[in-house]
Amino acid sequence: MEIWINPACSKCRSAIDLLDEEGASYTVRRYLDDVPSEDEIRAVLERLGLEPWDITRTQEADAKELGLKEWPRDAKARGRWIAALAAHPKLIQRPIITADDGTAVVGRTEEAVRDALSR
């Protein structure tokens, strides 16, 4: 299991605390320092069953500068969104937990983190 976190994020810290309480074995990836490649983002999206705009933090300053709210959300624009996430990792929703069964969840709630633990 791997968890992508921003240590400054309270949701990330809560997810880590829950994983620790449950004795889970996991690896931490500080994705702002160890930025995921476009291929890694594609792989996580496949595991999540989501599109890039579904995991984009559109309220971030970078998102506003890029005008992301105006970008199309369709198959033709998918690569552009993924490139933006790789170039601006602050835009990636957090925490993302990749479960041992090959799936992933956005672990913003206790229920989502427990779901990843059960897989």
Automatic annotation (TrEMBL):
UniProt keyword annotation of Signal present: no
Keywords, ordered alphabetically: Oxidoreductase
SUPFAM superfamilies: Thioredoxin-like (SSF52833)
Coiled coil: none
Matching PROSITE patterns: ARSC
Annotated InterPro entries: Arsenate_reductase, Arsenate_reductase-like, Thioredoxin-like_sf
Pfam family of the protein (one): ArsC
This protein's name: Arsenate reductase family protein
Organism this protein belongs to: Streptomyces crystallinus
